[in-house]
Each structure stands twice: as C-alpha cells, then as structure tokens.
Write a structure and sequence with these properties.
globular, Four Helix Bundle (Hemerythrin (Met), subunit A), 77% helix, 0% strand, 144 residues
Length: 144
C-alpha cells in the first residue's frame, strides 16, 4: 500500500498556514500577549490544529509502513523514532507536543499564558521540522 499523497499534501497546506499564523504571533511582546485574550485563543487554536495535522500525517505513515499499532496519539512519534524515521529526541519532543495539545483541548481552563507564550517562542520550530520530515517522505515516495 502507498501513502495517500493528496491527503498528506492537504494536511501540509493547513499545517503551513498554522505555522505562518504562529510565526506572526511570535513577534508580540509577552505583556501584549498576556493582555490580549483573542490573540491567546488564536495561538491555542493554531497550535492545536498544527499538532493534529502533524499527528494525522504521522499516523498515516505509521499505518502504511506498518510500524506499529498506536494506543495513544503520541505513540505514532515513538514508532517513527524506533523505526529510524525520526531522531529519538525529536520523537520525544513531538510526543510532548501531543501532551501540550491535549492540555489545550481537555484542560483549557488551566492554560498558563506564560507557558503558552514560551511554546510560541520555542516550539514552532518543531512543527517546521516535522513539516520538513513529511516533505522528505513525500519526495522519497515519488522516487522511482
């Protein structure tokens, strides 16, 4: 079975738009960010959707390449790391991003603004790195 390239490309396009929005928000100072609930909510949603996009892509790769049977969303990154597709530290970081996404969705009333801002400043790069990984997988799939 082959990767569903159109599905992955569709998710990558959405991921790119979420990354672009997060990148725009990174320039805002912490005080301005703290004072703007609308901005905070936009960042939360962009992170949630970006992590879900990455996880959907990762789950598809794990399924097609038969790398394992995930019990939880974060497992897909562990399987990709164990199979050598991701650096183990990067796999762990992406697993932590799933935990962050879960906090945004299920413990939304406990989201710490400073922590959210720190993710915005430091962890958008993880999303970019995963995007690049997915693009490499697609390029390898296109090779004869």
């Amino acid at each position: 079975m082959k990767l569903n390239v159109s599905s992955i490309r569709q998710r990558l396009l959405k991921l790119e738009s979420y990354i672009a929005e997060l990148e725009k928000q990174r320039a805002v100072a912490l005080e301005a960010f703290r004072a703007d609930l609308t901005r905070q909510l936009a960042v939360e949603r962009a992170f949630q959707a970006a992590v879900e996009s990455c996880t959907d892509i990762a789950a598809h790769i794990v399924s097609i390449y038969q790398l394992g049977h995930p019990q939880e969303s974060r497992d897909v990154y562990r399987f990709l790391a164990e199979a050598g597709y991701l650096d183990p530290a990067f796999g762990e970081a992406m697993m932590a991003m799933v935990g962050f996404r879960n906090r945004l969705v299920h413990l939304y009333w406990e989201v710490d603004v400073e922590r959210l801002y720190r993710y915005l400043q430091e962890d958008v790069a993880l999303l970019c790195r995963f995007r690049d990984f997915a693009l490499q997988i697609l390029a390898a799939e296109d090779e004869p």
